[in-house]
Design brief:
Blueprint lengths: L1 H33 L11 H6 L2 H34 L3 H9 L6 H12 L4 H8 L11 H25 L3 H9 L4 H12 L1 H16 L3 H5 L8 H11 L3 H32 L1
Helix pairs in contact: 1-13, 3-7, 3-10, 7-10, 8-9, 10-13, 12-13
Length: 273
């Protein structure tokens, strides 16, 4: 019996490591490899030198800024929503309704907002009806952040909802019995004990928000340029795979940094508890 279990474990582990090697390690190695070749196929550090120019550094800061805004507003809306969901009846049904839009193709949602925010869309029709008049909503920072938050917010709500659901109600009751106000209970008990959910939500939203490219084209009209947009441009337009790979290397490093920072934050929160 033990021999059978050991054989099964070995098979599972072997399959797992083969999958990791083929679909995680190999692509990363290829990205790093191609980053050392210039557009003519010569081995060079030119791509890395180019990345540290003002253009790409400004693009990197812009990517982090927009990813921060998307994550911040997702958390600002997502946390109260997740908290209210845990207090409502039929919470699973409401949670399902919130998650349903995430099942729809991203391209379809982006095109839907082209109609909603367009010159003759429902938003401008409403502004006309209340006397404000038609406004340019598409191809602005607002439309880009708004649509991005709409797309990512279910992924912020779900881990926070799970964290709040696991919170022992006795701790909240004890806090209130000791005379703490609702705000103090939230600040000193509920929020610290749900930091793991917040941390997971930040990772799930911030990391892909760094590499957005389709929404920047459709909704922001290339007014917003991110690292994801630059990678697409290098691979598909200029055919400079080396520069595209170099940007991807720094994007991967940025994602790893975000994961390390949020993990440490969660660990510190656990220590304070």
């Amino acid at each position: 019996m033990n021999q059978t279990n050991q054989t099964a474990k070995t098979v599972y582990l072997t399959t797992y490591w083969i999958w990791i090697a083929l679909f995680v390690i190999a692509p990363l190695v290829l990205v790093v490899y191609y980053s050392f070749f210039d557009i003519d196929g010569n081995l060079s550090l030119e791509n890395y030198q180019t990345f540290f120019t003002s253009t790409y550094l400004s693009m990197t800061l812009s990517s982090f800024w927009y990813a921060f805004l998307i994550t911040f507003f997702s958390l600002l809306v997502g946390y109260p929503t997740a908290y209210l969901l845990t207090k409502t009846k039929h919470k699973q049904l409401w949670l399902l309704l919130i998650l349903l839009p995430s099942w729809i193709n991203l391209l379809l949602k982006a095109y839907a907002f082209l109609g909603i925010f367009g010159t003759y869309g429902i938003t401008n029709q409403f502004l006309e009806a209340i006397g404000i008049g038609t406004k340019q909503i598409l191809f602005t920072d607002f439309s880009f952040v708004f649509v991005s938050v709409y797309i990512f917010i279910p992924f912020m709500i779900l881990p926070i909802y799970n964290a709040i659901e696991k919170l022992p109600p006795s701790l909240v009751y004890a806090s209130r019995d000791l005379g703490a106000s609702n705000w103090t209970t939230f600040r000193r008990v509920i929020f610290p004990l749900t930091l793991d959910g917040v941390k997971s939500g930040i990772q799930i939203v911030f990391i892909p928000a760094l590499s957005l490219f389709m929404i920047t084209r459709l909704i922001a009209g290339n007014r917003v340029i991110t690292l994801g947009t630059a990678i697409e441009q290098q691979f598909l337009v200029t055919q400079n795979w080396g520069m595209g790979s170099t940007i991807a290397v720094f994007l991967i490093l940025a994602m790893v940094l975000v994961m390390v920072v949020t993990r440490d934050w969660g660990a510190k929160g656990a220590v304070r508890r």
